[in-house]
Amino acid sequence: MSGLMNPAEFANIRQAEEDFWWYRGMRAVLFRMLEPHLAGRRIGRALEAGCGTGYLSQRLQRERGWPVVALDFSGDGLRYARELGVRNPVQGDIRSLPFGDGVFDLVMSLDVIVHLPRGEEHLAAREMARVARRGGLVVVRTSALDILRSRHGEFAHERQRFTRRRLMGLFAGAGIRVLRCSYANSLLMPVALLKFRVWEPLLRRPPGSGVQPLAPWLDRLLFAPLAVEAAWLGGGRNLPTGQSLILIGEKMV
After folding, report:
1. The whole model's pTM is what?
2. Averaged pLDDT, 128-147
3. Helix/strand/coil (H/E/C) assignment for every residue in the chain
4. Is residue 3 domain-resident?
5. Is residue 12 assigned to a domain?
6. In a domain, 2, yes or no
7. Domain carrying residue 183
8. Does residue 1 lie within any of the structural domains?
9. How confident is the model at residue 3 (pLDDT cuts 50, 70, 90)?
10. CATH number, domain at 39?
11. Number of separate domains in the chain
């Protein structure tokens, strides 16, 4: 089964996802937003729908003790997951999940639905809602705003991006009560616009991965704005625009 994401990107992700500024920063943002909604909840079974290399699933299994089912469409990603020690990864399609109704306390899908052809995101949202138990959490991160399309997105086979209104409507329509939805990776947006709309068109280079090692000083410099955003979002405040969107919702029925 081939993947929706460019298979060549898995090796780049696996090399970078533990230490690269974007991965570290966006994990900090995600879990600062998520922690208040985890309070008082028991995560008896979790699903990462679109686990990629399995790094996050493995980390959650190890650090939080959650029984996480790691699922991905691509055999390339699952090969890395097995090498990392992820227990029993599953090959499957987020648009038709191979699980029964209401079996997960937490369903998480990070940067996956952007790879679906436009229109098929509704299938994925309904499936994530279906397999979540009543009162369970659904957590989604996705790329935001068409104006921020880039060489990296084209290389990774990104097929669509979202606005906050569209993402909230998608999951509300699937039966998810939206508890929180905010843009993120906002402070670096002017730099991103300059790079994606001016610099990259001028260079006319072919699509390529943006997940490449950086000098340590530059990695720290780029991480700093995300650390600031993590603190801001962790305080319950949203950001009005940004390069990513994070939605946290609850299965209603």
Report:
1. 0.95
2. 97
3. CCCCCCCHHHHHHHHHCCCCHHHHHHHHHHHHHHHHHHCCCCCCCEEEECCCCCHHHHHHHHHHCCCEEEEECCHHHHHHHHHHCCCCCEECECCECCCCCCCEEEEEEECCHHHCCCCCHHHHHHHHHHHEEEEEEEEEEEEECHHHCCHHHHHCCCCCCECHHHHHHHHHCCCEEEEEEEEECCCCHHHHHHHHHHHHHHHCCCCCCCCCCCCHHHHHHHHHHHHHHHHHHHCCCCCCCCCEEEEEEEECC
4. no
5. yes
6. no
7. 8-251
8. no
9. low
10. 3.40.50.150
11. 1
